[in-house]
Amino acid sequence: MKSLGVGLIGTGYMGKCHALAWNAVKTVFGDVERPRLVHLAEANADLAAARAAEFGFAKATADWRALIADPDVDVVSVTTPNQFHPEMAIAALEAGKHVWCEKPMAPSYVDAERMEKAARSAGKVAVLGYNYIQNPLMRHIKTLIGEGAIGSVNHIRVEMDEDFMADPHAFFYWKSELAAGYGALDDFAVHPLSLLWYLFGHVEAVITDMVKPYADRPSKDGGRRPVENHDAASVLMRLGGGISGVLMANRAAWGRKGRIALQIFGSKGAIVFDQERMNEFELYQADGRGAEQGFRKILAAPAHHPYDRFIPAPGHGLGFNDLKIIECRELIRAISGEPSSLVTFEDGLRIERSVHAMAQSFHERRWVEIG
What we know:
Layout: E1 5-9, H1 13-29, E2 36-41, H2 45-55, E3 59-61, H3 64-69, E4 75-78, H4 85-94, E5 98-101, H5 109-122, E6 126-128, H6 136-146, E7 153-161, H7 184-200, E8 203-211, E9 216-218, E10 224-226, E11 232-239, E12 244-250, E13 259-266, E14 269-274, E15 280-285, E16 296-299, H8 320-335, E17 343-344, H9 345-364, E18 368-369
Parallel strand pairs: 1-2, 1-4, 2-3, 4-5, 5-6, 7-12
Antiparallel strand pairs: 6-17, 7-13, 8-11, 8-18, 9-10, 11-12, 13-14, 14-15, 15-16
């Protein structure tokens, strides 16, 4: 497969993460052609030029449409705020480009449907940036569940918490706008939903409560501005196979930095994982003498592929950006026609449907079936 020409729209936290992945994927895996960093777009020309020089892109522009029209660009990374995803992703697909778009798809379900339809019509690879499923230990957990290591799974609990919106005196910013979505549900809950999809399939029914820890926040003009979405949510879920579940998401949780705490209970044991300690998980198997039963810690090691492509020794640990490099390798595999583990726009639309069903449940105060 020839080297891919890459376009990057947006250079914030996730834009830099994508740039690191495109730069490192050849070095880490070796079995792909080194991507060509062709074109970078930012909100203004000076910032675009500065970021292009830092990230290693050949060209810079303040017009993302010019990037999409560039014939040297084969695949577009979309890492802008959520409300801009639909227009940019659809334009890229209609221009014949592959798309790697950060989650969630869009604040509006109608726009998410448009994105999925555009991907089907274009016949191009279109995937979403759910890199937590790329953790080598998450892959091993999936293997253990498939092998029946903890028996038949019957209940799941998952929490996602961070504290970047915990300070009531922090200024209002775009993530609290209704235009950005429901709040914790689509900003956050989509990540644990991607893990549930990867391990068990999609959620089938939900009932939800949401809260605003702070009704308003100070604005930079000296006034106060009402918070327009909800920073915390609690969801009861039903999954296929009779599995029950609980999902809790809170982006105003003091002390939590990157917590996705997953507990999986089965008829013969349990598995416990926390993203804040992403290089380990705990396995409990109810066999042998009761006097010696207990959770045992499993550390990430070269046996958990592709950890071995980064580090030759166990216990040293991968990081968040390394998961993005793995995801980038999966994307290149998908573009070349190989099997891959990615959340496509089709799968992502089902995750979006789950999120919107949760919001519907909250407003209607009832269980909602997800068709």
